[in-house]
Amino acid sequence: MTRRLFWLTMGITIGALIVRKLSAAAQKLTPRGIAHSFGGGLAELSDSVRGFTAEVRAAMHEREAELRAGTGLDGTLGPIPTERAS
Questions:
Q1: Cβ atoms within 10 A of the Cβ of 10, count?
Q2: Domains in the chain: boundaries
Q3: 41, 42, 43, 47 alpha-carbon torsion, rounded to 10°
Q4: Cα distance between residue 7 and residue 64, in whole Å
Q5: pLDDT tens per residue, range 44-85
Q6: What single DSSP character describes residue 81?
Q7: DSSP per-residue string spanning 15-74
């Protein structure tokens, strides 16, 4: 009797889990579910692109500052080289 009760409980539990998984999958395939996942994907893509452009701009400004300092275009001229007397 306890074996039958165990297997009955196991079957009900597994059946409930399967029904929940199938319901969730079916919900994702409805127009509202597809729109929600598509909108979420677009939001993530937008955030990624925004982060990437911010990083590129920061690197661009850093490199520009390096180049300006290296060429003297930043307004600070280094020491004037003196000619060697040979």
A1: 10
A2: 2-69
A3: 100
A4: 72
A5: 999 999 999 999 999 999 999 998 888 878 777 666 667 765
A6: P
A7: HHHHHHHHHHHHHHTSHHHHHHHHHHHHHHHHHHHHHHHHHHHHHHHHHHHHHHHHHTTT
